[in-house]
Amino acid sequence: MPRKGEQFAGLTVAIVTPFRNDRLDESALKKIIDFQIEAGTNCICPVGTTGESPTLTHEEHERVIALTCEHAAGRIRVMAGTGSNSTQEAIQLTKFAKSVGADGAMMVAPYYNKPTGEGFFRHFEAVAAAVDIPIILYNIPGRTAKNMEPETIARMAEIPSIVAIKEATGSMDQASRLLAETNLTVLSGDDSLTLPLLSMGGSGIVSVVGNIVPQDMLKLVAAWKAGKIAEAQAMHFKLFTLCRDLLGLATNPIPIKAAMKLLGRDTGELRLPMTPLGPSEEAKLVQTLKTYGLLP
Length: 296
Description:
By secondary structure, the protein is of the alpha/beta class. The protein has a single domain (about 5-230), classed as Aldolase class I (TIM Barrel, Alpha-Beta Barrel). Helices cover about 45% and strands about 15% of the residues. The protein is built from twelve helices and ten strands. The protein has helices spanning about 25-40, 60-70, 85-100, 115-130, 140-145, 150-155, 170-180, 195-200, 215-225, 230-250, 255-260, 280-290, and strands spanning about 10-15, 20, 25, 45, 75-80, 105-110, 135-140, 160-165, 185-190, 205. Strands 1-4-5-6-7-8-9-10 form an eight-stranded parallel beta barrel, surrounded by five helices. The chain has a two-stranded antiparallel sheet with strand order 2-3. Strand 4, helix 2 (about 60-70) and strand 5 form a beta-alpha-beta unit.
């Protein structure tokens, strides 16, 4: 049986939100979008975790979604981050995303208030009832303080407009159950687990590292799909150290923004409470980028 949400298979890049002097840098955002389109990326996800959505004002959040959809202009799919721990706010953001032309809404599990399984279900059920747009669940208990259990996700998968999940628990057992027990498109939420997830039947990745090396992430996915297992494994190991450091030196998106600054592609500005890498972490990142061939 074909999986729901296959339009979101392949590489989705969770793009950063560029700032200049603590304001949204709209021209830089357009360049980021163009870079992904030129690379052949399948979809972009603005205002997710990597896009620093918790520190944006409501007006900025909506502006990033609107500008992304306007500039993408149908050239690349847009999976807008519209999650919230307030169901009413999630509905409002998702309605806005649909109104400006987003192809889908990526919705993080309600964070901080730690709902029961029933609460998770009713939250997403309410958004799905209020807005007719494909919904991509985002399960990342390391950020939200509570896992959405496979049983709960299986219930949600029965809702027609819930079509996919960004699986960021780090648990291959949980991913296996989702693939076995639902017909959702399952996307890796961890760059370094892309190949393991693909090998079990996953359909792609929502990537952080894709902000700087989208072509290599695309090569990994394409190699696996073509049955070129050794080539896919080689890409996995090539990317592994880069993935580890860009997601391990500090909390995302601190390292990826530092990398983009070093590569001349962003100011590197973050919003408090996010702070820049320290000197020793930046030195390690520079070495990682040199080893990968991104810096001379």
